[in-house]
Model the fold of this input.
Amino acid sequence: MKSLAFVQRNDTRSAVGDFSPVLSVLSYYDLGNTVSPFLLLDHIGPGQLLPSTQQKGVHDHPHRGFETVTLVYQGEIEHKDSTGSGGIIRSGDVQWMTAASGVIHQEYFSSAFSQHGGRFEMVQLWVNLPAADKMGPPGYQSLTRAQIPVLDLPNDAGTVRVVAGEFDHITGPAKTHTRINVLDVQIHANHEVAFCCEAGDTAMIYLLAGRLQFSANEIMEEQGLAVMSQHGTGFVISALENSRLLVLTGERINEPMSGRGPFVMNSYAEILQGYEDLKNGQFGLKTSS
Ligand code: MN
Done:
C-alpha cells in the first residue's frame, strides 16, 4: 500500500492575468522532481465574474516542452492559439493542449459567460513531456463532458470521471505521451474508495473541496495536496465530508529538468534557445495579430 508522504499547502492566492483568485497548489520550482511527470497545478476560483462587455483572461503567452490540461468546473473559457486551434471549454469539459515545440495562446472567459457573469472554477495542470517529445508538433485535444466516462461507485460512494488513463477497466479519452491517470472524483461523506497504480509511480491527490482521511488516520483539509509514497501500488481514501478531488498518478520521467516560466526543458541551454526561438517568431503568430 502507498502511504501519505506529505501534505503540501499554500494559502496565498494571487492573480494570473485577469484570473483571480488563483491558488498555486504546486509548481515545478519546488516539487517538479518529486511529483514527475506533473509540473504545476493551479486552482482558479471558485470566484464570481461580474457581467462585463469586455472579455477578461490571460493574454498571449508562450509554452514549450510540456502539456497544459485545463479542467473547467464552472464558467466558460475561450482558447485561441498560434496553430489556429481554438474553442470554448464549458463546464465539465477538459482541454488537453500539447505545447511541445511551442505555442502562443490566450485564455479568456468566453464572450457569452463574460456578458452574463457567474461563478467560475477551473484547474490547470501541467504535464511534462519526455525529452524525445519536447520538440514535437503542438497538438490540441478538446474533450467534452459527454466524451468523458463517469463511473458510479458501488454503495453510492460517489463518482469517478476518467479523463486520462483508466479506473476499474474504464478508459478515458485523453491521448497521453506517458502513462498517466487523471481522475476527477467525488466521494460522498463517510465512504471510502480504493485506487491502484504501479509500484514506483507518482500518486497525488488535490482536494478541491471537502475533507479526507488517509489510512493512518491523517486528515487533509480542502485545498491541500497529498503526495503519496513512491513504494506500494494502491491507496485508500475516506471522505469525512462530501469531497471533490483530483487523483493524479503516473510513471515518472527520470530525465534532467530545467524550467523557467512557461518553458520546461532538459537543460538551461534549451531554455535560452526557447527565448531565442520565440523572439525569432518560431512559435507562430500571436493570436491577436
Ligand atoms: Mn497558458
Observations:
- The longest strand covers residues 38-49.
- The longest helix spans residues 268-279.
- The helical segments are 28-31, 111-116, 268-279.
- The radius of gyration is 18 Å.
